[in-house]
Task: structure prediction
Amino acid sequence: MIRIGQGIDVHAFEEARPLVLGGVRIANRGGLGGHSDADAVLHAITDALLGAVAAGDIGSYFPSEDPRWKGAESRLFLEEALRIVGAGGWEISNLDVTVIAQKPKLAPHRDPMRSAIASMLNLGVEQVSIKATTTDHLGFTGRQEGIAALAVVLLVRD
Result:
């Protein structure tokens, strides 16, 4: 059996915060605003995993109104989604993420993000794809107002 899940997350820039994507600190300033550490990549992956097993979304488990998650590392959200996936007997076959951002340039951070995500999910690096694109200055990402991340995951079970 196979299942496919899709996730998306969007955050606006918040200059005073560090930028964390895919579990990697990209910059000390120019980060993303949000209740947690606002790691849009890990949030999108979390939603993709939960969606693949029809277990709701990140907000069902970690609502932004709950003070327990204020400033929390998104790794915690991903670990819970992985636990839910594993409890159903599912394994991740592969994961594909696209980050949409006019800035910063993410090519130098792609491999560290792949490694970090693979480690968090107990996967080989070859099972994790990270791509980045711009919108050629169109829309909120093109105006450099924020970042969007899209994730697709394939789960397998015997």
The first strand starts at residue 2 and ends at 14.
